# Entry
Amino acid sequence: MTQLGLEGSTRGDTLCAGIATGELLWLDEPLSFWGGTSLDDGVIVDVHHPQCGIALGGRVLVMSASRGSSSSSSVLAEQIRAGVAPAAILLSSRDAIVTLGALAAAEVYAIRMPILLLDAAALAEMPRSGSVSVSADDEAAAVSWSTRG
Amino acid sequence: MTGALVLTDADERKLSGDEGAGMAMAMRMSVALATVSGAPRLIDISSAHIDGCLYHGQAGLDFVEKLVSLGAEVSVPTTLNVSSLDLLHPGLVRLAPAESSAAKRLMDAYVALKARATWTCAPYQLAASRPGRGSDIAWAESNAIVFANSVLGARTDRYGDFADVCAAITGRAPYAGLHLEANRVPTVELDCSSVPRHVLDSDAVWAVLGCVVGDTVGERVPILTGVDAGVVDEDRLKALGAAAASSGGVALFHVAGATPEAVDAGASWPPSGVPRIEITTLMLRQARDRLTTAVASSGIDAVSLGTPHFSLAEFEKLAAVLSDRVPFDPSCTVWISTSRDVLALATEKGYAQVCEEVGARLVVDTCTYVTPILGDEVRTAMTTSGKWAWYAPANLGIDVVFGTMEECVDSARAGRVVRHDAAWA
# Structure
């Protein structure tokens, strides 16, 4: 039984270091940032995606992997530069396409969007919605949240 | 993290800046990628294909221009993917001047790194750029990756923008993913034996089959069984791979008795115990219908062929279909996207001229769904490409009809959708 205000947290591996806070968004299916999201405002525009129309900006995105064209790295880097990218991405697989976009933005602009790798047990502990904080460096990576009632 | 990455002395020198600040920046990315991949070490690559040539805004340009300004150059033979411009047909791409000049700057930056100005998503169609069986390469662009792995038996992981150009500069890639023999073994069987041979003996069906494969297997490594090797050719495998990489995350597939690693494995593949899924003609028809977003009675304003880029063999087939010289309806423009190298060959053979005589428009260096080429008045376009049909509705804001090459040609002549349903039963 959970108590009001109790802190929950889970650990993962760092794919890209950084810190962030944002509302969770669990993606129901893999997503191609290129072709599947709008470059200018980070909204999902893939008509085949069940969450078409949702804006990714500022959200802590939970996804298994990207899909499709490898141009997704550039699109994510540009969305990071423009400030319309997710606040953080929590992956359940080692997705290099997403990670490279964040690493490139860190290299050129020194803007660090954290990307974490979470295993199934860690994902199972996570809430489905609400605000979470993400912290990832070379030593450790964690997601934390306040549980409510 | 999993086991620590071990670098060679040569890797350390590249990282240290001894070989220039550009090499050091590229090496930081190559090392970071290897760490993400959980690789124990880096390996030499024999070629690279860079996908980062489309202008997607400031970030991609800033990254490459930074490498140029720091003095980097590619260290292995490197091809370049489609750009946002057609340099041989100025004015064809209707980008705003600011964006057009940024797109040209991006192209110039890659040429300054000493990569080849191929501007194609199908580098495997260029004789000088086909990697050998078993060679380790670092290719980007999902259709090029799946083709190199599956059809040529070369070994590349699923590289993205930034990783590709950095690998081209460092000549190194993580020993991980599809570079490892063990990860190339099929993990799911797709049994196509119930699909009649005449249905599979059609180019368009392979694009649709690719969509079904991607939807069904996600990122697993499938082996297709029950396919007569006599109906398999490179263009069909190109169409399958491109669609499977779009609808799923397929980077490697095998066709029993047809693709090189499956031929070598013989009866030992599919390995015992892998799940088996039956592919039916009904699944193909349903996938074809899902690719079509327009209503059946639509007029057709445009036809787009050549995604991935039209091959010489596809030009030959199309020229044969068009040899009766029946012109296209003036309300419908037919676009063919290809590489400047293949266009030169198709012109030498006379195929390109046949296409242009009946009104087709040729596009090189880019593609009709990644940059503004189709007229503003276009509402509905028809295509033979599963990949084009997958992306065009979102990219271009238009409706799409998927069809065979014959259906596309007959529709372009009629100015409305013409179907030949016999091909699909």
Notes: Chain A has one domain: 7-146. The CA atoms of residues 44 and 51 of chain A lie 7 Å apart.
